[in-house]
Amino acid sequence: MSGFQIFIKGKNLEICDSDELTDYFNSHAEMPRSAITPDLVAVCLCGGNSSRMGEPKFLLNYHGVPQFQQIQANMDQLGIPCYFSCKAEQSHLFPEGAPLLFDTEVFSNAGPMSGLLSAAKELEGKAILLIGCDYPLVQLPHLRMLANSYLAITETCCYYNFYEQRPECLLAAYHPDDIEQIRLEFSEGKLSLTNFLNQIDCLKIVPENAQILQSFNSPADVKDFATLLVASQQKNPVF
Q: In the chain, N or C terminus with fewer CB closer than 10 Å?
């Protein structure tokens, strides 16, 4: 598995895995961390229109099961409760008893922010690890790194696309304090999670191989999955 580079508070750290990251923070008392660690839950966003894909992206089978079930399996291994954010009319597409969170009208028409804020309303006080269902190259070690990064400092953190120079708002862990700030931004008509992450000085995770951050949005992407999966597992340093 490739390594990672961590950007936080003016420091650049080259880290092999999440255990090394945890050890680093435990041995450096000066690194930022909150006094209280809110419970961390995962929310997989499944309510998108999937207009370019032509079918619901959370139902696509890349790893032997629908993508939403693959994400849930990864979260189960990490011991993190996982919920699925969707529209009420999509509920029949999930197994009976699946932990669903429906988009609310008050937070409508804001893209991923709608899903995050609707989920946060039901999960008051929780930190939310937000996961897009269109990142099939992101696997368990990558999700472990994201979760452990949050747990190490209990502050908002995200993956960062080095080539596109932007944070990945759908591969991010949001602290409840920042979720409250996002709620205020929504009320002011500021509807971009990407812009919010750019504004705050949060921990950013840069994977050694940026291929894992590719979003699959079209049938052509799905067709190339096997080739892209192999490429994503090769060393392709961006730092």
A: C
